[in-house]
């Protein structure tokens, strides 16, 4: 599975997913839980395609569950913000 070698494109895809979740009525907690599950899947399954994704994987692997949830929430919010600038 290729999610994009370009960091900005990857953030745009993630931001679009967050926006879709909002449009279908998901609240922030549900979106953050989905981001956490995706982060866990990505960290355990996919080889990072760029330096930024590698850093995210390393942070994920180092963090405990609470820290991972925070990281997932921050990434979802950052990606959504970046995707709405266009």
UniProtKB/TrEMBL annotation:
InterPro entries: DUF3243, Uncharacterised_YmfJ, YmfJ/YflH_sf. It comes from the Bacteria. Gene3D superfamilies: Protein of unknown function DUF3243 (1.10.760.20). Pfam families: DUF3243. This is DUF3243 domain-containing protein. The lineage of its organism: Bacteria, Bacillati, Bacillota, Clostridia, Eubacteriales.
